[in-house]
What we know:
The protein has helices spanning 2-24, 33-43, 59-66, 114-117, 127-133, 173-189, 200-205, 216-228, 233-246, 251-254, 258-262, 454-464, 473-476, 486-497; strands spanning 97-101, 122-126, 145-148, 153-161, 164-170, 279-280, 293-295, 308-311, 316-325, 337-348, 356-365, 372-379, 387-393, 399-407, 412-419, 424-432. By secondary structure, the chain is α+β, with helices and mostly antiparallel strands. It has three domains: 31-262, no CATH class; 293-432, Galactose-binding domain-like (Jelly Rolls, Sandwich), CATH 2.60.120.260; 454-497, no CATH class. Strands 6, 7, 8, 9, 10, 11, 12, 13, 14, 15 and 16 form an eleven-stranded antiparallel beta sheet that branches. The chain has a three-stranded antiparallel beta sheet with strand order 3-4-5. The protein has a two-stranded antiparallel ribbon with strand order 1-2.
Amino acid sequence: MRRISLFIHLCLVCATALVAQTNYYETVEGLKKVELKRALHDIIQPLQVLKYGSGKGRTWDGFWQADRMNDSIVRDRYSDSLFVFNLNDTTASIKTMNIEHIWANSWWGHVVNNAYCDLFNLYPAEKYANIAKSNNPIGEVTGTITFDNGVIKRGLSTSYRTDSLITVWEPADQWKGDFARTYFYMATCYSDLDSLWITDEGWLTADMSEWPTLKPWVYNLMLKWARLDPVDSIEINRNEVIYHIQGNRNPFVDLPSLSEYIWGTMVDSIFHADAVIVVPVDPIEIEPEVEDFFEDFEAASKREYAENTITATAASWTMTDALIGLSNNDRFNDARGVRMKSGGVAVMTEDYAEGCDSLYFYSGLYGTDKGATLSVYYSTDSGENWEPVAENLAVGEWQQYGYKLGVEGDIRLRFICSGMSGKRINLDDVLMTHYVAEPSVIKGDVDGNGEIEQADVDMLVAILLGNVETYDEQTADVNEDGRVSLADLTALINLVCF
């Protein structure tokens, strides 16, 4: 009965927090870029921070609440060493562990302010890994490695500039998204530290302006990592714990798409929490499968810019201020491709029925032209409404572009050339890889019906009470620590509520 009462209490707490979270971000809807970042800056200021160090009401007390795994093991994101909290004094510091600042406090002169004590910027770290990390910026180690403990690396990098090596530290793949969202949080919450910014390492990372704050090489890398390592239950739980300590949240954990609106593919779009986000993907060798859509325009013929509908290799296209180019100044991959001038449109007249996992195409400026841009859209309702893939893409040299869409069912494409009057671009080899739903284990879907809901919480409670003998341990192990325990119930309640 005591466990059931605890469960009901947790549900009530989560329901209250859900209402608070819904209201927490209501003022950012409909904003974009600098206005969006400014509004978030005001919203996420901590109401209080723990004092730095060990003891009740200090940093290590926060770590006990935010970074404790089963059996009181410390979650260390910097090494594979095993550390355990002192059960006689859970707020005590741990020997050979440090309090690690993701944004090094030396960047702002070690001034003890909110940024210095903010738990979102602090993690428990093995001492020698912390020393190796030092105050270096985060990045990808591409040159000589000077430290590697199997979890983090330090070494030379071309992340900043290919012709100028800098020293960076690189986390393990499983934590890259977590640290990226920490960087997004710090750049948003503490963009006003400009008067304190003093070190070269800090200046390499951020310019402390209101927007974009992060240097382009940093935010592009952080966007890449955030896409590859999405938010998981560990981050969600930590966000909740810190919210109850500091009274503020990391919005890039709650609403991961925000980073795309502030620094990424949606930077020129108005923020809507429920919008579909399209992200770039790396180029590929084009080897279309039978089910894929591949338009190479080799079967097409159109010699005038006047509007007309043509039949090409994979689809029919209506083209306005666009033609099939064959000249020496045209760029294409085989014998021909599309040439569009400013104001030109090329749109599919029929749907491709197999959906689109990823979209790829080649584009570049025609001849010596400059000042033309390309926008790409897709429609899932036969052209009634269009969603952006990329807008005002500043094409230059001939190259392949790729975007992850993840769209199921009917889809068609529209390409629009904009920019200086009369300027032209070329387009060729449009590939849509067909959509395939990925079979995967849904953590928290304990009853196996494909959804995470209250019924899953009820079943997990029954499992923990010993009332269910047969169940899928993979779905019940919500926090992915290899066992089914009360910690999984807490994680599941967070998933259901948030």
